[in-house]
Amino acid sequence: MIVYDAIIIGSGIAGLNAAAAFPKNKNVLIICKENSWDCNTFYAQGGIAVATDKDDIPAHIADTLAAGAGLCDEKAVDILCHDGIKVIADLIARGMPFDTDAEGNLLYTKEAAHSKERIIHAGGDATGREVHHFLMQQNRQPLLYKSTVTDLLIEDGICHGVSVYHDGKCKNYYARSVIIASGGIGSLYAYHTNARTISGDIQGICLEKGLALRDMEMTQFHPTVFIHNKGARKQLLTEALRGEGAHIIDENGKRFLFEYDKRGELSPRSLVSKAIYDWKEKTGLEVYLSFPDFEEEAFHERFPTIYFNMKDMGFNLPFEDVPISPAFHYAMGGIETDLNGKVPGCANLYAVGEVASTRVHGANRLASNSLLEGLVFSKRAVEDILARSVYFKLKVFDNDCEVLIKEGDAAIKEELRQIMWNAVSIVREMSSLQAALGRIDSLLQKDIGKLLRLRLKVSKNIIESAISRKESLGAHYIKNERK
Ligand code: SIN
What number does the ligand 1 atom closest to the CA of 269 have? Predict the structure, then answer.
């Protein structure tokens, strides 16, 4: 039986960067649910926020804390912004091709709520895809594809490995450390920008094991998403477009965001999402992203992914306006960890990236801080693992072959997405949250497969967290607040 030095669940930036941080002599296995690119990293457009030099670190910290609305762990933010410079320098030294000018200087763009241009990018608007491609090219560790992690093998507060469903069979894989890097919860929502595989399964397993999730009510909705394409994942229109001059208008051409905040298109994304929601409700008008000051060739070169994807859907950018809606984008909450990604209450277990809650993002993530988080905290987790000298005796577990999917699950999954979108999105009301909770409790009584049960339990946790946070904060906006 193989006992790995580490098993990594997930092949996004946090998972692949963790794998890269292990020395060659360590035996590491990366597990991905479908293909390696079925992760949120692959679809990240705008870029990676990083202080432009040491003097910019205090401003990056201040912007991150301001967006986080008082819920950030200041130490986590300090680590993110200080170590951020180092991990990006390291990535560049390893050969990652970020976009530069003719002299080789990094190109920085601006996104909402940043006090200056500090977003680096690659392939124009394909930053995530380029970083993923680069990390995959450099990866030396084996990947287990099309494999769903169905359980964490935990006994007496020690994690010994994972249970995996692959090719019709269940099998246990053992390791001295398990790093969860499986991303957020997009598929719980009717409209989202996430990879199709991202459905909060491991967060659900943690709940069943009695491990804490934290700040799950803090869900971020991206304001500029084209939601009329087929498929679960909707087409993101990066915030960098607004940073570089795109406007949000209603069907009469009015830039109504200035009625909500003097920063207009560059207000924090939670404000922009709420303003769009409110304006549509109030006026019944459609809302668009418009590109009045862009030239075709420059647009095509700077935003090639969006240019071609929208062309496929019948839009001629930058000449045509695109109808937009907010959609679920990012989970600030997740599995509670310390600043090294360690999960309290369970030896050998780590969580990094979007799946984790270090509280680095607080109540609202600053744009483009997520890829940076994945790089910084995955490295810290591996350093913590490598510094360890005590190992626990391995325990072998029976294979758990609980039925994962049952007939009828698909319809309930769809109902859940609608419940979450209608009751637990941009504007929340206590009565709707209570009704949603009641319905989820009754769905949990049905004869369902394990994967759906995990989704329902995570959704329930999000709703309970939303109900217990009685005041609006950051991305959590509650209407008719209880006094
Ligand atoms: C975007 O490109 O607008 C998304 C960036 C982010 O989620 O931070």
Answer: 3
